[in-house]
Design brief:
Blueprint lengths: L16 H10 L9 H4 L9 H8 L7 E4 L2 E4 L1 E3 L2 E4 L14 E6 L9 E2 L8 H14 L2 H4 L12 E3 L4 E3 L7 E5 L15 H4 L4 H4 L6 H9 L7 E3 L1 H4 L5 H8 L2 H6 L3 E5 L24 E5 L2 E5 L9 H4 L2 H8 L3 E5 L2 E5 L4 E3 L2 E2 L9 H4 L10 H6 L3 H11 L15 H6 L8 E2 L2 E2 L3 H5 L9 E2 L18 E2 L5 H6 L8 E2 L5 E3 L7 E2 L5 H9 L10 E4 L4 E4 L29 E14 L8 H8 L4 H6 L5 E5 L5 E7 L2 H9 L5 E15 L2 E14 L2 E11 H6 L3 E7 L1
Parallel strand pairs: 3-5, 9-10, 9-11, 11-14
Antiparallel strand pairs: 1-2, 3-4, 5-13, 6-17, 7-8, 7-10, 12-13, 14-15, 15-16, 18-19, 20-21, 22-30, 23-24, 23-27, 25-26, 27-28, 27-30, 27-33, 28-29, 29-32, 30-31, 31-32
């Protein structure tokens, strides 16, 4: 009688190579190679398991790789790749599905053990994680980075099942979730008296979305009582109160004793699947049973970049400022705090969780930023990364792009004490006015209604897409020589015709450089010159070295009243007509390459030949600069237009001096603008070599950018 590969008796070693590899993995081996035929060989023991791996890891493209008809398999045990095929004459370390060993008899040194899961989550495990964090982690997870500037409007009392006005001693849990398009029960001026009546939430349970009701039922099981959920704890149709609460959203999540994150759901009806007495059971992962005491399962994904919660704009700052999180995702649940991560499908002692490499891999698993770093010291690199990641998020109402990150900027008042104007740090205004896209494909945001306005075209927030922060963040770090030189005085207007208001403290970092660089005495408060080192330090972060002092706020500055700026950015400047042409790609002459790259730093040297860059030429068809094309339509237009190119009106916004290994050069930062009824709208950012710009025929204009 013939049998398929693999052992029919689990007491006998399997004959299937795929199954043998897993048994060797259970004994601590770390490196194998398998061909595709070793996986799909008809073995009845592991049938279905490869498909489970593919389903688990499909967005990572990591199960099978084919090249020239050669297919290989990559898998990993714990955090290490254990099956690897050589494609290019060397080991190609690609991310692969991660597996967990469930061994009922013995602990295998160095191999994290999987925990078998049930269709329902055990709430006592979640409570244990919370207690372990409180016991072992101390102030690292307990200390808050922000404070509430105003009292919360309401909290949900999960005991009385109603809204209550919070007292000072009421600690709260918060929920982070995706609203979606489902109709929501919201607190309004018309119903908030009703919702404050005891037991009102029980009476309205059939109108409350599953994720919200599941959270309400879970909170008491975590030995907590009060819960904050935006839809119920903010009066949605009170613009003053709603605006005040939205502007302190970062502090609301930072001050929460823990945050429940519904990362699985596309909307508020998804529920926290797997919680007993709340949502339905969850789907369990396939288990590979090789012997009576040796089983394998697939480790839960830390997150999926395409999951709705990971793509929404409003959840971005909620993730950053949540100090302790319980995350529901991929039919598992896990705990992430400032010290470590506990995973439901990994059996690990709490006092060792911070040192295990498998758990360390989860440490920053939501791709977020450290709230303390954001609020402590100025870092233009960090800020550039922050807005680039955020600007890829989506909104149901695109006019929310600034509101959904406003409280993050409020927390950053110490490193940027002069505040922000539509998402641009006032102290470094000219630096960030020269933003541009990383790739072609940025698009202008559009309001959901005709009477709603998105952020203006001159700020990154007025566009959706990934930004290129490399140029600015390297050369204009506060602890490096700032080379952006202001040439204009900026002011704003409420309307194109209204009186202008000069932006106070604009480009203050540059003025600090010119006033204090090289001085040893009479420095701004908190700054000290380091003898012999030639650098400066600030008392708030003495481990950091600066080439010159920069503006730093003092404690309490976050209470400063925010300045309201008009949406039209204005200046007296100069405009020139140039021609945008596509760069040569094939057989570019060395002289042409040199002429172009003299205008650019290392980041732009590689971008100049990429599809989103164009060459700027004057009327004599001589190259004078480069242009970073953000829009697909503009790029296609430039590529398809013959000589002399596409006419572009560019306006001067600042000057920039660079020094590199091959020498120094200077240029002007310019914006390509399109005029409509006397208002200029930004289309792209570029650079023109200094001598060329100063030699061009230019027009003195009053720039009004919308």
């Amino acid at each position: 009688m013939s049998t398929s590969p693999g052992a029919t008796d689990q007491n006998e070693p399997p004959q299937c190579k795929f199954c043998q590899v897993f048994l060797e993995a259970a004994e601590g081996h770390r490196y194998w190679k398998l061909e595709a035929e070793d996986v799909y060989n008809g073995c009845q023991v592991h049938i279905g398991f490869p498909e489970a791996l593919l389903k688990q890891n499909m967005e990572l493209n990591a199960m099978e790789y084919s090249r020239e008809n050669h297919t290989a398999v990559l898998l990993s045990l714990g955090s290490e790749v254990v099956m690897l095929q050589n494609f290019y004459g060397g080991d190609w370390m690609l991310r692969a599905p991660q597996l967990l060993l469930i061994n009922d008899l013995s602990q295998k040194p160095g191999i994290p053990l999987g925990r078998p899961l049930d269709h329902f989550i055990d709430p006592t495990l979640l409570l244990k994680w919370k207690r372990d964090c409180e016991k072992y982690h101390g102030s690292k997870c307990r200390d808050k980075n922000t404070r509430l500037r105003r009292p919360l409007a309401f909290l949900i009392d999960t005991k009385e099942m109603c809204l209550v006005e919070p007292a000072d001693d009421m600690e709260h849990v918060a929920l982070s979730y995706v609203w979606g398009q489902t109709p929501m029960l919201k607190t309004t001026r018309a119903n908030f008296d009703l919702l404050r009546q005891p037991n009102s939430l029980n009476r309205l349970e059939n109108k409350i979305q599953a994720t919200i009701m599941d959270s309400i039922k879970l909170v008491p099981q975590l030995e907590e009582r009060y819960l904050w959920i935006d839809s119920l704890c903010i009066i949605q149709d009170d613009p003053v109160s709603c605006g005040q609460q939205i502007n302190q959203m970062a502090a609301i999540y930072d001050n929460a004793t823990l945050v429940l994150i519904a990362a699985d759901g596309k909307d508020a009806e998804a529920g926290l699947r797997g919680l007993p007495h709340s949502s339905g059971p969850r789907l369990l992962k396939h288990i590979l049973q090789l012997t009576p005491n040796t089983r394998f399962t697939v480790k839960g994904l830390p997150y999926r970049a395409t999951a709705p919660w990971m793509t929404r704009g409003w959840t971005f700052q909620e993730s950053i400022f949540s100090r302790r999180k319980i995350i529901f995702f991929d039919n598992t649940v896990r705990w992430t705090c400032q010290y470590c991560t506990f995973c439901e499908d990994i059996d690990e002692a709490p006092d060792k969780a911070g040192s295990d490499p498998l758990l360390q891999a989860y440490g920053n698993d939501l791709g977020t930023f450290n709230a303390l770093e954001l609020s402590r010291a100025p870092s233009l690199r960090l800020f550039a990364d922050l807005i680039s990641v955020y600007n890829q998020r989506s909104f149901t109402f695109e006019e929310d792009a600034m509101s959904a990150i406003s409280s993050t900027f409020s927390v950053m008042q110490k490193p940027y004490p002069q505040g922000f104007i539509y998402g641009l740090p006032v102290s470094f205004l000219d630096t960030f006015l020269a933003w541009h896209g990383l790739h072609c494909g940025l698009r202008r945001r559009k309001g959901s209604r005709q009477d709603t306005a998105c952020p203006p075209s001159w700020t990154w927030a007025g566009w959706k897409g990934r930004l290129a922060g490399g140029v600015r963040r390297r050369l204009n770090q506060p602890n490096a020589m700032s080379r952006v030189i202001p040439t204009l005085t900026w002011y704003t207007r409420e309307t194109p015709e209204s009186p202008g208001c000069v932006i106070p403290f604009q480009n203050d970092a540059y003025h600090y450089k010119t006033h204090f660089m090289g001085k040893k005495d009479n420095l701004p408060e908190g700054w000290k010159y380091s003898e012999g080192g030639g650098y400066y330090k600030h008392k708030s972060f003495p481990e950091m070295e600066f080439k010159h002092p920069v503006p730093i706020g003092e404690p309490g500055d976050e209470e400063t009243q925010e300045i309201s700026y008009g949406r039209y950015l204005c200046a007296e400047t100069r405009q020139a007509r140039l021609w945008a042409t596509k760069p040569h790609r094939d057989g570019i002459l060395e002289s042409e390459r040199s002429e172009i790259t003299n205008l650019i730093d290392d980041s732009w040297k590689k971008d100049i030949l990429f599809k989103h860059s164009a060459v700027l030429k004057n009327d004599q068809a001589s190259r004078v600069g480069i242009l970073s094309i953000d829009s697909d339509d503009d790029y296609d237009n430039i590529r398809s237009t013959g000589s002399p190119g596409v006419p572009v009106d560019v306006v001067e916004i600042s000057r920039e001096d660079h020094g590199g290994k091959t020498g120094s050069w200077s240029f002007y930062n310019v914006l390509w603008v399109e005029w409509e009824d006397g208002v200029a709208y930004r289309k792209a950012m570029g650079r023109v070599e200094r001598d060329a710009w100063e030699g061009l025929e230019k027009e003195e204009i009053s720039l009004v950018m919308g």
